[in-house]
Amino acid sequence: MTKREEIFSKLEKVPSFPSSAGRVLDLIQKPDVDFQEVVKLIEYDPLLTTNILRLANSAYYRGLAKIETVRDAVLRLGLDNIFNMVVAIGFAPIAQKTVDPYDLTAGSFFEHSVAVAIGSVHLAKMLRLKVPPYLFTAALLHDIGKVVLGTYAGVDGEEIRRVCQKEGVQFEVAERKVLGTDHAEVGAALLRLWNMPENIVSVVEFHHGGVPLENGLAPHMVHLANSFCLMSGVGGEREGVDNLPSYEILSHYRMGDMVSAKLVESIEGELESALSLFRGV
Ligand SMILES: [Fe+2]
Ligand SMILES: [Fe+2]
Questions:
Q1: DSSP assignment of 71-85
Q2: DSSP code of residue 245
Q3: Is the pTM of this model over 0.85?
Q4: What is the pLDDT of residues 149-171, one digit of tens each?
Q5: From ligand 2's centre to the CA of 208, what distance in Å?
Q6: In the chain, where are the structural domains located?
């Protein structure tokens, strides 16, 4: 079995989101979604209920009346936002537990994921682009393949880092040399297995590039935010190599240095409060 085949054979073993969260996500994606049933499913899960109420009453919705029931939360936030919250609630414990073998110290992986999620949405707004409702969630999950590689496939990051340094290539290029695949491809395969919507999966798959300029708004925002986070060190994680964003994408959105500097600043301003939302989730 090649290294690549071995990695893909491990995907089945990665525990999915808690089953009630998975059922809510399946339900929300149905074309004839039953609102009552979504409310009922969330209500049956005390953890999901507590967290949805917490997030619905968080600083993001400041100024609005306090929400006390799941029904009101779903009504106020809408199904798109509920979908995003359920994913974040499912992802937080997986991401926060992740430790070293893949060069992800506890906490820094989650911090980086949240920083890129905030950054992608801010960037789209700064560039006056229409923010797709799934952008935050897709950005949050962009590196989920690293969890699979480091935790479930038992890949030691050491050799990959060595190739990065020696050959001066980007992290994902070194992954492909050593493993025959990279964390973007592995992450996308995992999310397909979990029945995530294809627009989210393709952001994960192409967050290092590879989507035509005309129809890649979401993957491009994530690509740029990811590069700026890694270059500036905001969000804690650095891949230790040159993480310049694609010149093609940068110039397509006519981004100057000012925008990237402002973006990093705005991520820094929001990161702590966003992270505190997930503590204890
Ligand atoms: Fe990545
Ligand atoms: Fe990343």
A1: HHHHHHHHHHHHHHH
A2: P
A3: yes
A4: 988 888 888 889 899 889 988 88
A5: 9
A6: 3-278
